[in-house]
Design goal:
Largest sheet: 8 strands, antiparallel
Number of helices: 18
Number of strands: 47
Strand content: 25-35%
CATH class of the largest domain: Alpha Beta
Length: about 950
């Protein structure tokens, strides 16, 4: 008699029942092993090995050749949900096809990144979609739906959102804490995650490296209180790489790794990404925590159950029923066309005084450091195809009509003995390792030891010196960038700068005693270049042992640019960043300005030819002066079809319709501190910024014009129904991105100056019109009422604003919302949570305990102020009590009045050891309350008695 298969193998049963059955069959050792990123196979049950994590931000990454789409911020600039969904479909389809060939390719994809682009100097801004929570959540929802697939039961891939929560700085990213008050938490940071999770195509989230309100994100109580309350699905929480160890090693939040591991599991982390493929350390920590009684088997089962739920959804246990199991579509014509379409839709025309589009026959000079580049970032796949701006323009206008000048400085480096650095001819170029399709074998691009190192001889080699700003240089010769291999020798071996630790960047440092000499420091190792008999290497740790070089400039880059510009009808300057150098994961930017080298090239081009357009190809905004430029464009690094797409826009084959997904500020002076996460108090992003931006959120021009008419707004129960008409009044077909904003006209508390409520990208032929209709929940007009701990729609007038950007409003209509007022703070009944303030000065929110709750402390450890508006003391209170830890003084006063109560907090013995202090305090009616904090204390709660 044939034995029946185990229950977990029965495809007719619900997944929950099958997961429970498999879980019950696993031994404790097998369950513990599954907590690591690389879960081993359970051979006795014929259960395969599984790993969480496959990067797929804008194409399948790190696994070799794949279709490369525009960077995430470029996808955000399309403002096109349908397009982004189709990109997600293509990426997940290729992930499936690649996995069929290589089982190292994972189906639990760590994408997309939904962190809001609050600060434009954040090094990972290229990974996010927008500074606005509505746009971010809409684009993220579209991408996750594409990644998930349309089957009602099985998922093509399982998306994990990054990075929970309020993560927007690389500087001290694993030790810095974002102070996020409740209004910002609910109205801004949580919102981007919530709407995407509620849409139903998310498998989980990844906590961020940083801390929020003094508590590491890997211990976030919001995982339980918010994330898992938004959906009935068993969400999988995957730690970021190395973050579990950070809880002890860098953050010093716990004394032992057993305590930290147990706390992370209890908070909701289900998969530990730590120590690479070696799971033994995590397994030992879990076992140690079990033995010490810090966690239970139930905690382990809960985490494993969530992982198994994802695996069942991916069809792992039903290969015969999995509709995606036989997927083979990879690098298809449709995927190539989609990559080009996405790159075209991502181009934003920022300014145009009639220079564009360029007519056929135009003699074009394309110049700049990125003019012949197709840059990749840390989360790109290997290019199967590539198109640079130079290539695209040559294809579109003809090679005979296009001239090129990269604009690099040409130099020779002379040693102290009078010889020059030389690249041996045997080194060849990176072209020798290109395949038939132009792809590159990443194993051969950098760190090559099969090539001879640089030497020094009487004539030497001319080097291209590229200054990327902040003193960071790359050097190139013979087509290869100078790179440093593990043996320390310098070779011209890299096709591009790249890698987790970039081995192609250097810095010239002035020599103390040599008038013209410089030391050449390799940034990746921190050592200096020296010249030895066996070749050039980075070996000197002491500057005194380093070679001293004279930099002999044979040609300035602006000289070549001037020659090319002067002989052309139009100049296209292509400037921007290298995603591996100018701001990236682990490294924030320092300024909005273009690097000085690129500014020199732009000035040279403009001086030689007034008909100069600047095209910024970058992952970030720049404060680029454009007053004397007739045209300015921006696009993120656009993937494999970037050059073709840009050329088609410049030529007018398509009208640009990308829109800025974040504010472009005019100056560094407009920026808040990088670590100031209070978008309300700091007046940050287009929502609250009161200055004049260089270009506003949502901005983007077209080659045609559009008229907006017939705005109609009506309330239908708890919905607002809004419609208006958009007409193409020009003479070319084009897309328009119609944007709808809301604004509280006379709010009682600070509210956004305007806030995106909906948008639609629509294609219109000349003369054609489209009536656009939107439904908005009335609740969407609300705010987080800290006085009562709830969402609240304030009664009063609201404006509905329709237009082409946050600043280009064409139509407006006022709607009055009736209803009860929120009412004053019921302080007698509820007291005051310290973090629920209305305003503050020099305070920061910290963790009340290691597991939950907030407290407030002076940011400088000395003094801070909190203001609570409209506190209702009723017929009168006579006493006050407070819960505080640490040591210091709390002073209570009414605005403009004397201190009415001063409470001394004696040293409590630790930041989490709270005491209750009482004093007399008299107040009646509805009054504002000011609280002064003196000394390094933590204030958690204030209560009042009658």
């Amino acid at each position: 008699m044939t034995a029946l298969p185990p229950t977990f193998r029965d495809p007719h049963l619900p997944f929950d029942e099958r997961v429970d059955d498999l879980l019950a069959r696993l031994t404790l050792d097998e369950r513990i092993a599954m907590l690591h990123q690389f879960a081993p196979a359970v051979e006795r049950l014929d259960v395969a090995a599984f790993r969480t994590g496959q990067e797929a931000l804008h194409g399948v990454a790190w696994m070799g050749p794949a279709t490369v789409f525009p960077q995430a911020v470029g996808l955000g600039a399309t403002w096109n949900d349908d397009l982004v969904r189709r990109v997600g479909e293509a990426v997940s389809t290729e992930a499936r096809a690649m996995r069929a060939r290589d089982d190292r390719v994972g189906l639990n994809v760590w994408s997309p990144t939904v962190n809001l682009l609050r600060h434009p100097l954040w090094g990972r801004g290229e990974e996010g979609y927008s500074e606005d929570p509505k746009l971010t959540s809409a684009i993220a929802t579209a991408y996750t739906r594409g990644l998930r697939g349309d089957h009602p039961t099985y998922w093509r891939t399982a998306p994990v959102l990054k990075h929970w929560l309020a993560h927007n700085n690389e500087t001290d990213r694993d030790t810095s804490s974002a102070s996020v008050r409740p209004r910002v938490l609910h109205e801004y940071d949580l919102r981007a995650f919530r709407e995407t999770v509620e849409a139903g195509a998310v498998a989980g989230v990844m906590p961020a490296y940083n801390l929020v309100n003094g508590r590491p994100n890997h211990l976030s109580p919001y995982l339980r209180e918010h994330l898992r309350a938004w959906t009935e699905r068993e969400l999988l929480v995957c730690s970021d790489a190395g973050a579990p160890s950070n809880l002890v090693d860098s953050e010093h939040y716990f004394d032992t790794h057993e305590e930290a591991t147990a706390a992370a599991l209890a908070a909701g982390v289900d998969s530990f990404t730590d120590h690479g493929t070696d799971s033994s350390t995590i397994v030992a920590r879990v076992r140690g925590a079990l033995e010490r009684g810090l966690l239970s088997e139930t905690d382990i089962d809960t985490a494993v159950r969530r992982q198994l739920s994802v695996r069942f959804s991916l069809g792992e246990f039903d290969p015969g029923l999995d509709p995606y199991a036989g997927t083979k579509d990879f690098d298809t014509p449709a995927h190539r066309a989609l990559a080009q379409e996405a790159a075209e839709q991502a181009v934003v025309l920022l300014k145009n005084d009639g220079l564009l589009p360029l007519p056929t026959g135009t003699r074009v000079a394309v110049v700049g450091l990125l003019a012949d580049e197709c840059k990749l970032d840390w989360y790109s796949g290997t290019l199967l195809h590539r198109s640079t701006p130079l290539q695209g323009l040559c294809e579109r206008f003809g090679a005979d009509r296009v001239t090129f000048a990269e604009g690099v400085d040409r130099v020779r480096l002379r040693t102290s003995s009078g010889t020059y650095l030389a690249v041996p001819e045997a080194a060849g170029t990176a072209d020798e390792v290109r395949g038939a399709e132009g792809s590159l074998d990443p194993a051969l691009l950098a760190g090559r030891t099969d090539l001879p190192p640089l030497t020094a001889d009487a004539t030497g080699s001319e080097l291209a010196l590229i200054d990327w700003g902040d003193g960071v240089l790359t050097l190139r010769a013979g087509g290869g960038y100078l790179s440093v291999a593990e043996d320390g020798f310098v070779r011209a071996s890299a096709d591009q700068p790249g890698g987790w630790i970039v081995q192609e960047t250097f810095r010239l440092e002035s020599h103390d005693t040599h008038e013209r000499g410089h030391l050449l420091k390799h940034i990746g190792t921190g050592r200096y270049v020296s010249v030895a008999a066996d070749g050039v290497k980075v070996a000197a740790e002491d500057p005194a042992d380093a070679e001293v070089f004279d930099v002999i400039v044979t040609e300035r880059g602006e000289e070549a640019v001037s020659r090319a510009a002067g002989a052309a009808d139009v100049v296209i300057v292509v400037a921007g960043n290298d995603p591996h150098i100018n701001g990236r994961e682990t490294e924030d930017r320092t300024t909005l300005r273009l690097p000085a080298h690129q500014e020199r090239l732009l000035r040279a081009a403009r001086a030689a030819n007034p008909r100069t357009a600047l095209t910024l190809v970058s992952a970030y905004p720049y404060a680029a002066g454009h007053e004397d430029l007739p045209a300015l464009l921006w696009t993120a690094h656009g993937g494999q079809a970037a050059g073709t797409a840009l050329a088609r826009v410049l030529a007018g084959d398509i009208s640009p319709a990308g829109r800025l997904p974040q504010t472009w500020y005019a100056s560094d002076d407009d920026l808040p501190d990088l670590l100031d996460y209070d978008v309300i108090g700091g007046r940050q992003t287009y929502l609250y910024f009161e200055g004049t931006p260089l270009f506003p959120f949502g901005h983007g021009l077209s080659y045609t014009s559009f008229a907006y008419e017939n705005l109609a707004v009506r309330r239908d129960g708890e919905l607002l129904r809004i419609s208006f008409t958009v007409t193409n009044t020009g003479d070319v077909p084009a897309d328009e991105v119609a944007q709808l904003y809301t604004r509280a006209v006379d709010p009682a508390i600070p509210r956004p100056r305007r806030q995106l409520a909906a948008y639609r990208r629509v294609h219109l032929t000349p003369g054609a019109s489209a009536e656009l209709s939107f439904e908005l929940p009335v609740a969407g007009l609300g705010f987080w009422d800290v006085a009562h701990g709830r969402w609240w729609v304030e009664p009063g007038p609201y404006e509905l604003l329709a237009g082409a950007s946050s600043a280009d409003i064409r139509l407006r209509e006022t709607l009055r919302i009736d209803g009860p007022a929120a009412g004053p703070r019921p302080v007698v009944e509820r007291g005051l949570e310290a973090a629920d303030y209305d305003d503050h000065l020099t305070t920061t929110i910290v963790d009340r305990s290691r597991t939950s709750g907030d407290a407030v402390t002076p940011a400088d450890g000395e003094a801070g102020e909190l203001v609570f508006r409209r506190c209702d003391f009723g017929d009168g209170v006579t006493g006050v009590s407070l819960e505080a830890a640490g040591a210091g003084t709390v002073e209570l006063s009414l605005p403009g009045g004397p201190v009415l109560a001063s409470l001394d907090v004696k040293a409590t013995g630790g930041p989490y050891e709270y005491t209750t202090v009482r004093a007399e305090f008299a107040a009646t009616g509805v009054r504002d309350l000011r609280i002064g904090l003196r000394g390094p204390l933590r204030l958690a709660h204030i209560g009042f008695s009658g």
